[in-house]
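R.M. (postdoc): so does anyone remember the format we settled on? I'll just put the structure tokens first.
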């Protein structure tokens, strides 16, 4: 069974740290894990809930579990016919993780214009390229441009891989120039030589409709 899961950047970071193999344990106030049954519903939640809270981003994940296992969870409808999900109690989540086939895949992302992302603690280049260590993904992008010009892009990809995975879709959405697209291509090529998780390039910049004056 194919399932979908909308998440914020903190949960995605934990999933990435698992090797894209497992969802993190639920918090005490989160007794239920809610995977949904179709991508449009997952996108709606990622855009209208995740991207409207936290740091201004929502991600959509796709994963597959064995049919024989998934059928034990009754489908729950929480709105229109599209709003279908499974309810998995928190205690069962480790068991569900063990039933995931292959890797969890990041398929889409939604970002507010004021998105502030993951702030790396690694300092491979010392005090140089300070933009890498800021939460602003645009400053991180400028640092990557400089590192590319210095011939150090591969070292940056390897040592800042978590940042790259989380922010790559945002940079794809922001790209405008030939130079931007060329650097994205270099990042992807370098990434694919080093890591098995797939980078996501499908992203939407999102302006909230209910902003306060």
């Amino acid at each position: 069974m194919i399932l979908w899961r909308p998440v914020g950047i903190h949960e995605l970071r934990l999933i990435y740290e698992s090797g894209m193999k497992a969802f993190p344990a639920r918090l005490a106030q989160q007794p239920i894990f809610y995977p949904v049954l179709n991508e449009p519903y997952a996108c709606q939640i990622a855009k209208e809930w995740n991207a409207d809270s936290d740091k201004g981003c929502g991600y959509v994940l796709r994963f597959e579990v064995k049919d024989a296992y998934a059928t034990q969870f009754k489908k729950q409808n929480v709105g229109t016919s599209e709003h279908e999900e499974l309810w998995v109690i928190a205690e069962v989540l480790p068991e569900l993780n063990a039933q995931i086939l292959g890797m969890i895949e990041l398929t889409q992302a939604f970002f507010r214009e004021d998105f502030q992302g993951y702030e790396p603690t690694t300092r491979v280049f010392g005090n140089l390229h300070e933009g890498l260590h800021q939460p602003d993904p645009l400053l991180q992008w400028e640092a990557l441009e400089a590192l590319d010009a210095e011939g150090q892009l591969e070292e940056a990809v390897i040592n800042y891989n978590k940042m790259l995975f989380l922010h790559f879709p945002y940079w794809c959405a922001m790209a405008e120039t030939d130079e931007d697209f060329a650097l994205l291509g270099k990042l992807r090529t370098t990434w694919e030589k080093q890591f098995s998780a797939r980078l996501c390039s499908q992203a939407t910049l999102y302006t909230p409709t209910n902003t306060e004056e």
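R.M.: ...and that's the designed sequence above, right after the tokens. Also worth knowing: The two ends are 44 Å apart (CA to CA). The chain has a mean pLDDT of 93.
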